[in-house]
Design goal:
261 residues, alpha/beta, 41% helix, Rossmann fold
């Protein structure tokens, strides 16, 4: 599925929910012509940074299991604004074994054509059917890691599994990035034989704890470094999906063209 963007993390501390939600919010505000669904295909109710999310994929479990899911009902339950829709995942961690990859694929089939972009928070737990279904269905996956050794080790442990699933990430996001960290981009690239072109840096933000308390994404705090880093990820996604670019990038392109004339 070309318009399904699956974000997955090396472990539970790397910020998969924050990054994926921020990307969805930024694109929805910048490009009103694009209809976006942000959905959690993992455990979690989607309310970590958005306490107004009222429905979840888990809430549609009976309809999905019985193959009677209605796309209109999904859109109505998840609508947040003119072009942004949001759904949580599995609210009860103990119920994750009741979900299978085929359920994710059925859900995606039911809503096919209703959204221009589906941005999925796939968490980090590969022992979850919803997560596996999303990763297998997506042609554009983005891995999120941090500069912590524990995060890199867990990514290392999952590499063989990713290869068996034929998951080739289109981007590696280094979240909570710090220039003075001893685990540099060069070190990470060499350690995992990764091209530097795959890397996206998302600067560490001083508002991270405040965002958790306020249940808002970091876009709400006017942190230019964070916002600019998220915009780079968003621009990459739009380009790969054939959806053009962010408005400010388009304006810059037009100005360059006018000056050339």
């Amino acid at each position: 599925m070309k318009n399904l963007i699956a974000f997955h993390g090396s472990d539970h501390k790397v910020g998969t929910t924050m990054i994926s939600q921020s990307v969805a919010e930024l694109i929805s505000k910048n490009r009103k012509d694009i209809k976006i669904l942000w959905v959690v295909f993992s455990t979690g109710d989607g309310k970590d940074y958005a306490n107004y999310v009222s429905q979840s994929v888990g809430g549609f479990r009976l309809q999905i299991h019985s193959h009677i899911l209605n796309d209109v009902e999904v859109m109505h339950a998840s609508k947040q604004s003119e072009n942004l829709y949001m759904l949580g995942g599995i609210k009860n961690y103990l119920e994750k074994r009741n979900y299978f990859p085929e359920m994710t694929k059925y859900f995606l089939d039911c809503i096919e054509g209703k959204f221009d972009l589906i941005i999925a928070d796939c968490g980090n737990d590969l022992d979850c059917g919803l997560t596996m279904g999303a990763l297998e269905s997506s042609e554009l996956t983005y891995l999120i890691v941090s500069q912590r050794e524990s995060s890199l080790r867990k990514y290392e442990m999952k590499l063989d599994f990713y290869k068996r699933l034929d998951i080739n990430d289109k981007g590696i996001i280094i979240n909570h990035f710090r220039e003075d960290d001893p685990l540099t981009l060069d070190y990470i690239g060499k350690r995992f034989a990764l091209s530097y072109e795959l890397f996206f840096r998302v600067q560490d933000s001083k508002f991270s704890r405040q965002a958790e308390t306020d249940k808002k994404s970091l876009l709400s705090y006017g942190d230019n470094s964070y916002n600019n880093d998220i915009a780079k990820v968003a621009a990459s996604i739009l380009k790969q999906c054939g959806l053009g670019c962010l408005k400010k990038d388009e304006e810059k392109r037009k100005k360059r063209w006018i000056s050339f004339i």
